[in-house]
Amino acid sequence: MPTRREAFRFWLKLGLISFGGPAAQIAIMHRELVDVRRWFDDRTFMNALNFAVLIPGPEAMQLAVWLGWRLHGTWGGVVAALCFLLPAMVLLIALSFVYAMHGDVPIVAAVLKGLMAVAIALIVQALIRIGGRALKGPLHVALAVAALVLMLGRVLPFPAVVLGAALVGALAGRGGVVAGTTAPAPVNFPWRTLAAGVALWCVPALTILALAGGESLYFDVYRFFTTAALVTFGGAYAVLAWVNQQVVEVYGWLTLADTIAGLALAETTPGPLIIVLQFIGFMAGWNNASGANPGLVATITALLTSWAVFLPAVILMLVGAPYVEKVSGNVRLGAALAGITAAVVGVIASLAIAFGRSVLFPEGIGQPDVAGMGITAVAFAVLSFTRVDVLWVIAGGAAAGLILGFA
Known about the structure:
The chain has helices spanning about 5-15, 20-35, 40-55, 60-100, 105-135, 140-150, 160-170, 190-210, 215-230, 235-250, 255-265, 275-285, 295-320, 325-330, 330-360, 370-385, 390-405. It is mostly helical. Helix 8 runs antiparallel to helix 13. The longest helix has about 45 residues, at about 60-100. It is globular.
C-alpha cells in the first residue's frame, strides 16, 4: 500500500501528462498502477473501469477517483480528481483568454484553423473506433441510425436519446450476473458522501440565487451544465453534439466556430476532453457580460461550468465505489450500456457532420476549404495508420494552418 505522499505524487504526475484522451489516460494508469507499481491487480482495475463506463462522466477521471478511494478512502479519491483536473483547468482558462482577446489576429486565426481541421479528423477517428466496437448487430445499428436522425433533425435532445437507447438495450438484455462472479458482501450506503456532494452543489446555486437571481446568466450556465454532467455518456464528443445545439441555437451564448475552436484547444490540454465544456462556459460569459468586465464574468462562468460538470462525476463515483464488484457483473446493466454506446455512434456522427460542414465547407457544400480538407485528411491518415502521438499530430496541424494561412 503506497503512502499518501506517494499517491499524491503519482496523481499529480498523471494530471500533468494525461494527454491523448481517455484511452491513453487509462493505458497510463494501467501500466503504472498494475504493471509497474503493483498497487492493484488487473481484475480490480478492470472492474473499476467497467463501473466508470456505466455511470455518467469522464471515465478516465472517474477511474482515477475510484483508485484513489481504494487506496486512501474518500479523501484519496478527491485528491486524485483534483490532480487530474486542475492542470487542465488552469491551462484552458489561459488559452480561453488568448482566444477571446486575440482569436481574430491573423496568426492566431491561422493556428486555430489548423487545430480545428485536426479536431475533425479526431472526431471521425473516434466515430470509426467506437462504431467498430459498439455496433454488434442489427439492433445496435438501428439505434445508431435512429440517434443520428433524431439529433440531426432536432427531434429529441441528447438526454432523451440516451434514456431511450438504455431502455431498449436493457429490454434486449437478460437480467442476472456474469457467470463465475460471486455476490459481494453487503456494504453500508455512503449517505454522508452523498449529502456532502449535494451540499457542495447547492452552495454555488444558492449564492447565485441570492446575488444574481434565477434569471441570470450565472444560474442558466450552472443549471445547464449540471444537466450536461448527468447525461455525459459515451465521452465528450457525444455530449458535445447536444451541448453545441443548445448553446448555439437555443441559448445563443456563442457561435459554432467558438465551439469548434474550444474542442481544438481542449485537445491540446491534459486531463479529460470534456474540459471543453469549461471553454464553452467561459465564452458564454465573455460574449454575454452585459456591460460588466468580460474577463471577470467569463472566469466566473468557466469555474461554475467546471464545478457543475465535474462535481457530479466525482460524487457519483465516490457514492458508487463500494458497489463496483456487484455492478460490474450485472448483465442487464451491461446491455443498457451497450444500447447507449450504439446510440452514441449516431450522436458522434451528427457532431462530425455539423463540425465538418462548418470547418471544411464554410462557404457551402460547393465551395470546400481545400487547405482545411488537406490538413484533415493528412491528420486522419497519420492517426489511423501510424503510431505517432496525438500531440504531434495536433502540433503538425497548428503548424500547417500557420504555413498555409500565410502562404
